[in-house]
Structure formats: C-alpha cells, structure tokens
Amino acid sequence: MDQELYTIYDSHAHYDAEAFDEDRAWLLGQWLPLNGVKCVINMGTRLRTCASTVGLADLNPYVFAAVGIHPEEIDDSLPENWLDCLKVWLESSPKVVAIGEIGLDYHWEDCAPRQRQMEVFSAQLALAGRMGLPVCVHDRDAHADTLSLLRHYRPQGVLHCFSGSAEMAREVVELGMYIGLGGVVTFKNARKAVEVARAVPLDRLLLETDAPYMSPEPYRGKRNDSAKIPYTAEKIAEIRGISTKDVLNASNANIRRLFNLEGLLDQPSFNT
Questions:
Q1: Model's pTM, two decimal places?
Q2: SS3 sequence, 62-114?
C-alpha cells in the first residue's frame, strides 16, 4: 500500500471494548486523527455499552454513536422496560445517529432462543421506523429470518460485516439498504466476500472495521482499528478495477448520507 494519507470513515466499530482499555484515549485522541480518520460510528450492544458508546461520542468530536441490543446480549439481565431504556439513550444526544448493533445470530448455541431474538430485533426495527433512524444489522447464520424481517419493516440501514451471497446482497440493496464490508474481503479464502464486493453498487457500499475484530491482511489476527480501512478499500478497488481513493470516497459519502451526518460533521468544532 502506498503512503498517501486518505480520508477515512468507519461505519462500524467497538472502541469501548476491553481490547482498547490500555490506550483508548491515545488511540482516539491522537493515532486515528493523525492517520486520516474523520468519522467513526461506534456501536452499543447492550444497555451498559450504550452508555459507554454515547460517552465516547461526547468525548471525541468525530465519533458518533449507535445504540441497541445485540442478539448475543439478550439474556435474563435484560430488564422488562429495556425498550424504554433504549429510547432514553437514543434521545440523549444529537450524536446518537442509529440503532445498532441489532439483529440475529444463530451461530452460538448460548444465544437467546431464535424466537426471542426475533422479538427483540423486531421491536428495535419498529422503534427505528417510529424514530426515523437507520439500523446497523448483525446477521450470522440467520439469512432467511433476517431478510424476512427486513422485508416486513423495510428500515433504512446497513447489514454489517455482510456474510451472505451476492444474490442476497442484491436483494438487500433492492430493499434500499447498504452492504457493510470489512477486513474479511482481504482474506485468501474470502470467495463470497469478493463476489459481493464486485457486485454491490458503489453507492450502496460501506467500509467498516468491526474494531477490535476482523483486521485485514496483513494484520489478520491482530487488533483492528479504523486506520486499517485503506487495506480493505485497496482490495475492493483491485476487485472492481478502480482506485482506492474512489472506494473510500464512495463509502464516505454513503456513510454521511445514511447516518444523516452532513450537518453534524460540518460543524466547525468537528475534525473534518
């Protein structure tokens, strides 16, 4: 990769994760801005991390928050009034720009029963519709049920870390949603991700890290962060026969549009 300093937007990260506990302030305050990172959408996954996510957005001008209940976090500790609690966080700051990370995960046996996952996912999709907010959707081994609910609620939003086929990606795009791609597309065995990267319209592509997870080559297996997004963009550019800057610029514009960031990012106090 060349040494050009790109303008980087990251549509999906988890900077409140324990992996960043030792150097979070330095990373967000210095390293990422020095490497061209101008916008990060940080994800909540349960009520506690919704609080930390909003806190990071309040502390860092270029960080925005999504708050939601992840399918792996649906357990007995979820209070009966969880949806009301979530709404409080959604209304807590103008920098809360989406409901996420929400969705379905049928991979892990210790996740909530499928019917319960669908109930919680449905309630959050309905809330997004009422509040006019986009959603950030997690879909692991649950393509059929995810698509069924998306067809029913027809939200604005993105399927993050997209793991479906190119045909599924086309259906998601036809529903008016975006496709999120990250470091997986750089992996040597990433056949489906490569096909999706080739097929998805450029105006429906979002780049993401899922930091601290899913680092692209040559950093696979190490902690991920938003400064590594150009490696993903470079691979997608190679697949599509365009420039890395074209991929980054398209994704950046899509992130601004989906999360309604124009007025927020253009404020003088924000580092753009």
A1: 0.95
A2: CEEEEECCCHHHCCCCCCCCHHHHHHHHHCCCCCEEEEEEEEEECCCCCCCCH
- Residue that is written with structure tokens 């899922």 in the block: 210
Please tell me the distance from the alpha carbon of residue 69 to that of residue 79, in angstroms, as a whole number: 12
Helix (H, G, I), strand (E, B) or coil at 35: coil
The pLDDT value recorded for residue 76 is 83
List pLDDT tens digits, range 191-220.
999 999 999 999 999 999 999 999 999 999
3-state SS, one letter per residue, for 128-191: HHHHCCCEEEEEECCHHHHHHHHHHHCCCEEECCCCCCHHHHHHHHHCCCEEEECHHHHCCCCH
Cα–Cα distance for residue pair 126/121, rounded to 1 Å: 9
Question: What architecture (CATH level 2) is domain 8-265?
Answer: Alpha-Beta Barrel (3.20)
Q: How many other C-beta atoms are found inside a 10 Å radius of the C-beta of residue 139?
A: 25
Q: Where are the domains of the chain?
A: 8-265
